[in-house]
Amino acid sequence: QVQLVQSGAEVKKPGASVKVSCRASGFTFTSYDIEWVRQVPGQGFEWMGWMNANNGNTGYVQKFQGRVTMTRDTSISTAYMELSSLRSEDTAVYYCARYDTRQRNAFDIWGQGTMVTVSS
Amino acid sequence: ESVLTQSPGTLSLSPGERATLSCRASQSVGSNYLAWYQQKPGQAPRLLIHDASSRASGIPERFSGSGSGTDFTLTISRLEPEDFAVYHCHQYGYGRDTFGQGTRLEIK
Questions:
Q1: Which of A45, A64, A103, A109 to mutate to test the interface with B (most CBs of B within 10 A)?
Q2: Residue among B43, B50, B98 minimizing CB distance to A106
Q3: pLDDT for B60 beyond 90
Q4: B7 neighbors B22 (Cβ within 8 angstroms)
Q5: Residue A14: is the preceding peptide bond cis (ω within 30°)?
């Protein structure tokens, strides 16, 4: 079954960091980009950036530059998104999604989402 | 950054009716790389349409997308009970992705 499975919910204090994992199964992990998108409850989606799962190249939205790091471990087909210097405005559901840069058929598979709550 | 504006914010219709959702971009969408997603409460988004008008795998024929440039439309020809959800548009493909704020489709 083609799927992305994310790690569980996190509660963090302001100033801390969070690392969310996204494990791929049912497809060749290194043939895709992994995208990260977040959604503040009740609001729209905000794209954070992308990572090429084959070579590890990344591209981050300027808003998150310096605070976000996207990495991967190809041996276990898992992508990671780490966000540092957390503030209350970072409270959101974080999603990973796959994107085929050759087919360019948008984000066709999404993880189930990881709720990150930032609270003192 | 190109802003996507969806309208209406909320659409109230009955099962069997036709739904028309709009997504307008502040700049022309490159190669018409415009997608539509359906999201139900507590669930991840589900890809419906990519490249403005191509249905994703397994998506029923009652869902169709149209448009080009800056104006795009998602049409659901005859609403089924399971179609009541939030719909998001998304421009992609050039490393400057943005999403609309969503249209809530509710039962009248």
A1: A45
A2: B50
A3: yes
A4: yes
A5: no
Summarised one tens digit per residue, pLDDT across range A9-58 is 999 999 999 999 999 999 999 999 999 999 998 889 999 999 999 999 99
Average pLDDT score over residue span B11-27: 98
Tell me how close the Cα of B1 comes to any Cα of chain A, in angstroms: 11
Q: Which of B44, B56, B88 sits opposite A113 (nearest CB)?
A: B44
**Which chain B residues in 4-43 lie under 8 Å from chain A, judged by CB atoms?**
31, 33, 35, 37, 43
- pLDDT (tens digit per residue) in A45-86: 999 999 999 999 999 999 999 999 999 999 999 999 999 999
The region, left, alpha or beta by phi > 0 then psi within -120 to 50, assigned to residue B101 is alpha
Cβ-Cβ contacts under 8 Å, A95 against chain B:
44-45
Burial B6-18 (b: 16+ CB within 10 A, else e): beeeebebeeeee
Amino acid code (one letter) for A117: T
All residues of chain A having their beta carbon less than 8 Å from the beta carbon of residue B50 are: 104-106, 108
Query: How far is the C-alpha of A91 from the C-alpha of A78, rounded, in Å?
Result: 23
